[in-house]
Structure formats: C-alpha cells, structure tokens
Amino acid sequence: MEWFEVVSTYAPSSTEGLSAYDSFRMWADHNRVWIIFVQLILVYYMGFATRVRMPILKTILLYVLLFIGALIFGILDVQLPVKSALLVAIAILVIVKVRIKPEGSSRK
Q: pTM for this structure?
C-alpha cells in the first residue's frame, strides 16, 4: 500500500544482517493493514456471522467496511497492540466454537 504508509514500529538491531525474525517483523509492519483485515474477517465470521451466504452486494459492502476499519486499526496499531488483541479474540472464538460443537450434538 504505497499510497498509505503507516509508520514502522520495529527497528532491527543490526541493519547489515537481518535474522529471520527481523525480516518477519519488517514484513509484518509493511503489511500491517492487510494482516488486520484478514484478522477482522476471521473474527466476523467466527463470532458474528449467522448465515454463511449473503447477497453479493451486502458481502461487498461488508468487506469494504471491514477494510476501512482495518485502515483505522492500522493507524492505531502504531501505539496500541491491535494485532495481538485480534489474535486473542480469534483464539477465544476458536475455543468457544470447539466447546459448543460437542454440546450441540449431544443434546439431539
């Protein structure tokens, strides 16, 4: 996203030889908005979507609004742990989905 550059928060300790961790952190800083966008999609579908199928225009509008939210969260991610918070939300939603599945089948 060349038109929307977010300030990088990671500075590697040595610039001559980057380790795999340094390369990953620099890549994650460069693609911050796209990572947050994917995480927002996962949180929406695991926590809020009641139907998997929506009309195409509603789906497009949903993705546009999620991308706008990802841009805002990308700006906030410079000072706040937005990506980490979304990872925790995804982990909690996965745990809830796994725990609810066996209970729902045993009641029938």
A: 0.77
Distance CA 103, CA 34 (A): 35
Parent domain of 60: 20-107
Which residues are CB-contacts of 70 (< 8 A; sequence separation ≥ 6)? 33, 34, 36, 37, 40
C-alpha 97 chain-centroid distance:
18
Whether 7 is in a domain gets the answer no
The answer to the question of residue 2 being in a domain is no
Q: What is the DSSP string of 22-75?
A: HHHHHHHHHTHHHHHHHHHHHHHHHHT-S-S---HHHHHHHHHHHHHHHHHHHH
Count how many domains the chain has.
Answer: 1
How does pLDDT run along the chain (108 residues), one tens digit per residue? 455 555 566 667 776 778 888 888 888 888 889 999 999 999 999 988 877 788 899 989 999 999 999 999 988 888 888 989 999 999 999 999 888 876 655 555
The answer to the question of residue 52 being in a domain is: yes
Token code pair at residue 41 = 């999609």
